[in-house]
From TrEMBL:
Gene Ontology MF: a single term: transmembrane transporter activity
Protein name per the record: Branched-chain amino acid ABC transporter permease
Membrane topology: Multi-pass membrane protein
Subcellular location: Cell membrane
InterPro entries: ABC_transp_permease, BCAA_transport_permease
GTP-binding among keywords: no
GO terms (BP aspect): amino acid transport
Similarity-based family: Belongs to the binding-protein-dependent transport system permease family. LivHM subfamily.
Assigned keywords, A-Z: Amino-acid transport, Cell membrane, Membrane, Transmembrane, Transmembrane helix, Transport
Record-annotated membrane-spanning stretches: 6-28, 60-82, 94-117, 137-157, 186-209, 263-283
A Gene Ontology term for the protein's cellular component: plasma membrane
Pfam families cross-referenced by the UniProt entry: BPD_transp_2
Amino acid sequence: MQEFAHQVLAGLATGGIYGCVALALVMIYQATQHINFAQGEMAMFSTFLAWMLINAGMPYWGAFVLTVVLSFAIGAVVEFAVIRPLHNAPMLSIVVVFIGLMVIFHSLAGWIFGYTIKPFPSPFPSNAWYGSSLMSAHEVGTIFVALVMVALLFAFFKLTPLGLAMRAAAQNPGSSRLVGIRVGRMLMLGWGLAAAIGAVAGMMVAPVVFLDPTMMTGVLIYAFAGALIGGIDNPIGAVIGGLLVGVLENLMGAYVVGSELKLVVALIVIVAVLIVRPSGLLGRRIVTRV
């Protein structure tokens, strides 16, 4: 029973990371109606920036904050320089651009930082008082960081004028322009926030999987599965879906398929959701009158 509880709680910790990446995917999907396939590689590149700052002597939390700021800037620049000119481009062109961004960030990370696996420090000491036999201090800290980030984003989108403007611009750009909202600026801000969220997720997962250019590949697939389960257009649903995928991954890996085939679980989940309920558990069903 204790082993089962450990698997569930550890799954919630990794699920928190999946939920963060899923949240970033949902934010960009709401703004562009497209999935950003480069989200994981952007998060990986940001984590390398944090590693570089820490190795240069900067304290962890100072490097954490600066990395989030730099990641926000990178996301905003990508939207302004790459995505905005494709506003009226065919869907296939946009998909190719997303794949191109994924390859570019992956190659840049390998070229600048190398392809060797590097250790990444955890901000949570292994002997901290909140660690236990069921959950390590890093797992507890990861859940806490994920919950704080979700709470801050929820308050931002629900309680601030800027957050409400971003929601309006993502849901109805035409009407938003009529009431004076700068839709382009709101979309750029959304890309920046998504990149910053991805950076936080990358810095939380790097101490577990170690740092290398391929570290976010599996995480992105799990996050995509979580976003589909919760609803690709529902931020809260994406976080819940990420937590469910994290728990399911751990339980299936421990008791059913083994650790080598855990990634298959995420792929099966993606296919099953697309077949049975494409809108997800909390996503909106679009009904068209004929």
